[in-house]
Amino acid sequence: MITLAALARAALSTLADTLAPPTCASCEAPVTGRAVFCGTCAAAVVRAGPDRGGVVAFALFGGPLAAALRRLKYAGRPDLARPLGHLLRSAAREAGLRADLVIPVPLHPVRLAERGYNQAALLGAAAARELGAPLCARALVRTRHTAQQARLDRVSRRVNVAGAFRARAPDRVRGRRVVLVDDVTTTGATLTACAAALGEAGAASVRALVVARAEPGDEAQ
């Protein structure tokens, strides 16, 4: 049965597509419907396969997907969280993820002020809709302003974020299945540090969900 709310959403989506026709998240070529990439860019996206170390990823970092993620993160394009969120939802669905809470990797307040938005929180909203779980964007806090991970080697990344996160309200996390969301993972250092903080707060389990996973040697962020 089609509800009035569903009809209203469909009408708004059609209007939005008319006023601002959808384009490829990487190269901005025209696309149709809910396509994230044009045909050429889509053909260059390599799916990530089975999850690794508790991390579910839609695809490997590189090519058009890397370009789209960099635009989301560094080029002031929070609107790209919507199409990239579709990829995150697909990955969660295919992996059969279940969650009581969806928690994005937090930014330090200084970096959040610089960027104007947390891309992980925007993506986390899509994951929360897919999983039917509340998005707790403030459940984790970054306790110090760390250097950007992309500028560090693998060993330095682990040192950079070790102990840099804590649970803001442990009672909210305790005994819950958590899905931790970020845009991309390289060494896994950030996700590991966040998972440690959630584990200390008593989370029953922590799984990570990202749009892209970088292979060793790739520059991901």
Mean pLDDT across residues: 86
First and last CA, distance? 44 Å
Widest sheet, order of strands: 1-6-5-2
* Percent helix range: 40-55%
> What letter string, H or E per element, gives the SSE order?
HHEHHEHHEHEHEHE
Helices, by number, come to 9
For this structure, the CATH topology is Rossmann fold
Q: Biggest sheet: strands, sense, closure?
A: 4 strands, parallel
Shape: globular
Number of strands: 6
Structure report:
The protein is α/β, with parallel strands linked by helices and 221 residues long. The protein has a single domain, classed as 3-Layer(aba) Sandwich (Rossmann fold). The chain has helices at residues 4-19, 39-43, 63-74, 81-95, 109-115, 119-131, 154-161, 170-173, 189-200; strands spanning 55-60, 101-104, 140-142, 165-167, 177-185, 205-213. It has a four-stranded parallel sheet, with helices on both faces. Strands 3-4 form a two-stranded antiparallel sheet. Helix 9 (189-200) links the parallel strand 5 (177-185) and strand 6 (205-213). Helix 4 (81-95) crosses helix 6 (119-131). Mean pLDDT is 86; it is low at 4-16.
